[in-house]
Write a structure and sequence with these properties.
The chain is an alpha+beta fold. The chain has 2 domains: about 100 residues, Winged helix-like DNA-binding domain superfamily/Winged helix DNA-binding domain (Arc Repressor Mutant, subunit A), CATH 1.10.10; about 55 residues, Ferric-uptake regulator, C-terminal dimerisarion domain (Dna Ligase, domain 1, 2-Layer Sandwich). It is about 45% helix and about 15% strand. The strands form 2 sheets. Strands 1-3-2 form a 3-stranded antiparallel β-sheet. α1 runs antiparallel to α2. It starts with a helix and ends with a helix.
Length: about 160
Amino acid sequence: MESITLKYYFKILDDFLTKKGLRHSAPRDKLLDFLCDPSNGLMQHFEADTIFFELSKRDLGVSRASVFRNLTLFSEIGILRKSKFGENHFHYELAGTEKKFHHHLICKKCGKFIEFDKGSFKNIARSTAEENGFTMTDYRFEVFGLCPDCGKTEKEE
């Protein structure tokens, strides 16, 4: 598969590997190709075990350790964004070629989440980072609570 998104992410990966004196590996390249494939069947926010399961199903020869290691690497270099959503494991999503920031409302009871975009948070995050000598490369804003369905159930109990 060759797309603008795949080319964009491979450029990020190439630049990082070159800078660190590292080489491409078949499992890493297969994983990135799979993540960028719009027909991969993944939800927008996915878990490492889901990726491993889907790669295994397709017999792509990528180990579970390679999946976890490379998802961490892809997060560190800006290909993926990761969030915990109040759970003990990460959820990942492609960062997007346009680096669009968005936020999440997360239900602590059922795990449902809603994405929303409010640009003013970006300015607050950037100015707070600058005030403290940080260079902002990314930020996350997550609100935890109860969704309308769980909130209703909570009141009834």
